[in-house]
Design goal:
- The protein is α+β, with helices and mostly antiparallel strands.
- It contains five helices and nine strands; from the N terminus they run βββββββαααααββ.
- It folds into two domains: 73 residues, N-terminal domain of MutM-like DNA repair proteins (Alpha-Beta Barrel), CATH 3.20.190; 123 residues, Helicase, Ruva Protein, domain 3.
- Helices cover 24% and strands 22% of the residues.
- A four-stranded antiparallel sheet has the order 1-2-3-7. Strands 4-6-5 form a three-stranded antiparallel sheet, with no helix packed on it.
- β8 and β9 form a beta hairpin.
- The termini are far apart.
Length: 216
């Protein structure tokens, strides 16, 4: 059985621990012996019952590692964003100590595990916080709203993915702009809240899309 911490899937084997990171386009499928393999199969693990677990990844961004223990994968990671025991107070404590732009802090998996680039932009738009604003300059009240929004957006995304399977019934979504998201990832597109033209900038090497009117 697989567990998860942030974006990392973890499976305890008879010998060692298998870690899988799907990147942007990776997906797993359990195949019967007669099933045709994925078109972009990068890995196949053969199971005791003759089925196989395949990793499909068109862009080859997924990562696979075999280590001795779970701590190798999770030891330097922050709390999982959807961990029900991780409170808003703990989120505020971790984030408010950072002097970096809030977009970079949200993407730092050592601070909080599980938030990706498009979801960081989404939650910051909803809460009305500029992606370049320093984390330690954001009020506790807005950080609490940010934490609650992160949980809500990620839970909605999971529900969307589970309800939109591929042609073989497996949950599979690769489009960064679909019905999960409010913010269009295109410079000049109208803000979904006020219709101001969206802008973009590089923050910590990642592109941030934001509304100059709604986000401060």
């Amino acid at each position: 059985a697989f567990g998860r911490q942030g974006k990392q899937l973890i499976a305890k084997l008879d010998t060692g621990v298998l870690g899988l990171h799907m990147g942007m386009t990776g997906r797993l499928g359990v195949m019967a012996p007669e099933d045709e393999s994925f078109r972009y199969r990068r890995l196949a693990l053969y199971l005791d019952d003759e089925r196989r677990l395949e990793l499909d990844d068109v862009r080859r961004w997924a990562m696979v590692r075999l280590e001795n223990d779970v701590e190798t994968f999770t030891g330097r990671m922050g709390p999982d964003a959807l961990d029900p025991d991780f409170t808003s107070a703990q989120f505020i404590e971790r984030v408010s100590a950072k002097r970096s732009p809030i977009k970079s802090v949200l993407l730092d998996q050592k601070v909080l595990a599980g938030v990706g680039n498009i979801y960081a932009d989404e939650v910051l738009l909803i809460v009305g916080v500029s992606p370049s604003r320093r984390a330690d300059k954001i009020s506790a009240g807005r950080l609490e709203s940010l934490h609650n929004t992160i949980v809500g957006v990620l839970e909605n995304a999971l529900a969307f993915i589970e309800s939109h399977p591929d042609d073989q019934g497996r949950p599979y979504v690769i489009d960064a702009q679909d019905d999960r998201m409010q913010i269009p990832r295109k410079t000049g597109a109208p803000c979904p809240q006020c219709e101001t033209a969206l802008k973009s900038k590089k923050i910590g090497g990642r592109t941030a899309y934001y509304c100059p009117s709604c986000q401060h």
